[in-house]
């Protein structure tokens, strides 16, 4: 290492920086190739009803494992895809694959798919979603598109028109990571949102931290009064589950319920859930 070469700490820093730049350069090239080849996996994290424990849906989560690097987390490759102008294409690949796979699940199981704020501003988004629904045959009522508050910040007239057109297709729109962004309540009036997903950071702290508990309580109340469905994300412990359920959130998602599953594993879970219901 450069330390052994005895050039001091600045050289160490330079090496690390160069390595980061090189990694980034290689990953960008690999991501461009993957976007063209549609070389992504989709995993599905189960979502259950908080009062009955019944399996009600799944969130599709993109996975990318370039041969040279092993798995690269979405927190790294999604922003990269946004910067490189690849997110529209990658987003559609994920949506198409997820809708196709959801067709083999029971009709009662909903599918949630994340949309990047960049996609909301893309004039091809609505026709792209319509084409995927047509092509896969998934009933639009089974599809929920998750957006974040960031998507509503910039050109909010355009965002409003786009969301209204998506809802006109019959799909539902959820507000993801709620509480972490600007969380202006006016969004909930202005945009056609039917569900809030409470961010895992509040869910996590709620049983032990008074502020997080108040936020969860306030969001649950808001949901009730505005007729919005509530999903709590990031449930990891029984105490969190209990707190969330007692505050009237309808749906639960998190490692306590299940980690994200492969399509085969999720299909098995649907089958098992169906047998349990029939028994
Ligand atoms: P998100 O949409 O909020 O998805 C939930 C994230 O929380 C997932 O991380 C999931 O694996 C993780 N998670 C679920 N339960 C727990 C839990 O109990 N504890 C903890 N600590 N984490 C939990 P993942 O798969 O790494 O995705 C991270 C983010 O990347 C997503 O957050 C979403 O914003 C973005 N993302 C993933 N797939 C896509 C995609 O296809 N398109 C777009 N635009 N964004 C995506
Ligand atoms: Mg999400
Ligand atoms: Mg989220
Ligand atoms: Mg998140």
**SSE pattern:** HEEHHEHHEHEHEHHEHEH
Work out the helix count.
11
Number of DSSP strand runs: 8
- Name the overall outline: globular
Low-confidence regions: none
Radius of gyration: 21 Å
Q: Strand arrangement, largest sheet?
A: 1-2-3-4-5-6-7-8
Bound ions, cofactors and other small molecules, one mention each: ligand C2E, magnesium ion
The end-to-end distance, rounded to whole angstroms, is 64 Å
Helix content: 40-55%
Tell me the structural class: alpha/beta
Major β-sheet profile: 8 strands, mixed, barrel
Arithmetic mean of pLDDT:
92
Work out the strand percent.
Answer: 15-25%
Domain EAL: 24-274
Protein name: Bifunctional diguanylate cyclase/phosphodiesterase
Describe it for me?
With 279 residues, this protein is an alpha/beta fold. Helix content is 49%, strand content 16%. The protein has eleven helices and eight strands. It has an eight-stranded mixed β-barrel with strand order 1-2-3-4-5-6-7-8, surrounded by five helices. Helix 5 (125-136) packs parallel to helix 6. The protein is globular. The protein starts with 8 loop residues before the first helix and ends with a helix. One magnesium ion binds next to loops.
């Amino acid at each position: 290492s450069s330390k052994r070469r005895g050039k001091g700490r600045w050289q160490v820093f330079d090496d690390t920086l160069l390595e980061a730049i090189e990694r980034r350069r290689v990953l960008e090239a690999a991501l461009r190739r993957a976007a063209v080849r549609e070389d992504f996996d989709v995993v599905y994290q189960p979502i259950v009803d908080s009062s009955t424990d019944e399996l009600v849906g799944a969130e599709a989560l993109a996975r990318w494992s370039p041969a040279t690097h092993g798995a690269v987390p979405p927190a790294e490759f999604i922003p990269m895809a946004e910067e490189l102008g690849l997110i529209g294409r990658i987003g559609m690949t994920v949506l198409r694959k997820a809708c196709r796979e959801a067709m083999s699940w029971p009709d009662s199981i909903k599918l949630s798919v994340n949309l990047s704020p960049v996609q909301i501003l893309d004039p091809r988004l609505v026709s792209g979603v319509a084409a995927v629904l047509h092509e896969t045959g998934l009933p639009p009522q089974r599809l929920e598109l998750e957006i974040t508050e960031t998507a509503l910040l910039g050109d909010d007239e355009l965002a409003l028109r786009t969301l209204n057109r998506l809802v006109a297709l019959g799909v539902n729109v959820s507000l993801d990571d709620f509480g972490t962004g600007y969380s202006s309540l006016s969004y909930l009036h202005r945009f056609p949102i039917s569900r809030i997903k409470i961010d895992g950071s509040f869910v996590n702290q709620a049983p032990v931290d008074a502020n997080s508990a108040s936020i969860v309580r306030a969001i649950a109340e808001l949901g009730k009064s505005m007729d919005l469905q509530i999903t709590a994300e990031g449930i990891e412990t029984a105490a969190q589950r209990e707190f969330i359920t007692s505050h009237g959130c309808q749906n639960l998602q998190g490692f306590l319920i299940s980690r994200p599953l492969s399509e085969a594993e999720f299909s098995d879970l649907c089958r098992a859930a169906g047998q349990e219901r029939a028994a």
